[in-house]
Amino acid sequence: MVTAVIVSYHPDFDKLVGLLKALTPQVQGIVVVDNGSSEAVVAWLYSVCLPISLKVIPLGENLGIARAQNEGISAARNDGADYVILFDQDSVPAPDMVAQLMAAAERQAARSIKVGGVGPNYLDSRQGNPPPFIKVSGLRVHRQLCATPDAVVEVDYLIASGCLIPMSTIDDVGGMLDDLFIDYVDIEWGLRAKTKGFQSFGVCGAMMAHDLGDEPIDFLGKRYPLHSPLRHYYHFRNAVWMYRQGRLPIYWRLADGWRLFLKFGFYTLFAKPRLQHLKMMTKGVFHGFIGRMGRLD
Length: 297
What we know:
By secondary structure, this protein is an alpha/beta fold. The chain folds into two domains: 2-209, Spore Coat Polysaccharide Biosynthesis Protein SpsA, Chain A (Alpha-Beta Complex), CATH 3.90.550; 214-290, no CATH class. It has helices spanning 13-23, 39-47, 65-78, 97-110, 167-173, 185-195, 229-243, 250-270, 274-290, and strands spanning 2-8, 29-34, 53-58, 83-88, 92-93, 115-123, 133-137, 140-144, 152-155, 164-166, 199-209, 214-219, 222-226. The protein has a five-stranded mixed sheet, sandwiched between helices. Strands 5, 6, 9 and 11 form a four-stranded mixed sheet that branches. A two-stranded antiparallel sheet has the order 7-8. A hairpin with a 2-residue loop joins strand 7 and strand 8.
């Protein structure tokens, strides 16, 4: 049994309906955890009729994506789900995406591999090319490109949206870390799973449409994802906090820290309003060092 867990936050109704319709033939249950949208949104969610089970969990306020995912996972566990598949509200899976992920997970399990998560090859319509899967080796960040359409590649972590996880893995590894609130939640979980002997995989044949961040920045012929100053606060805070955790490999902390340093300079120069981005990134770095976590009030 596969249950989809969708986190909603002031959703675009048309996009969310598209996601629900795409998921209905592919899973056995759907849980929508609403992270503090209006009462009208919650009422609309309760009114949605699907041919499969739809459960709505309104949190009443924005408690962060990690807490929302954990609430959805708990509901899926109580309903007897063997797998959960996580989704952002604006992703759209291909008609065979879940089947592709399931097949890949079962093939790896048949080889006696402890499966962490398996995730799709997603396309951001504004980027033009699917972002690569990521694996850090030594001090280098390797971009795992899909050599063939049916390739399955080892990764350190996956983006949360579209990630299929065996419930038995979650029982062993634990859920998402609430204190991160948003950003690096999926990375932290993937790395934690890896330290416990679980391997995650990117499945090239499993396709999904997913827009990452706001309108990208054009620079030297490439497009780089952009987030709001507040999201950059969480991104930099949670990254720095993770670097301080001794259980993570030193090579990963150095490689990711170098990327974070480059991002700090890039967004300071090119993300508008520059001063606001600089202020929030700096505050994030400081809070990461002193361990001030949770939601920024």
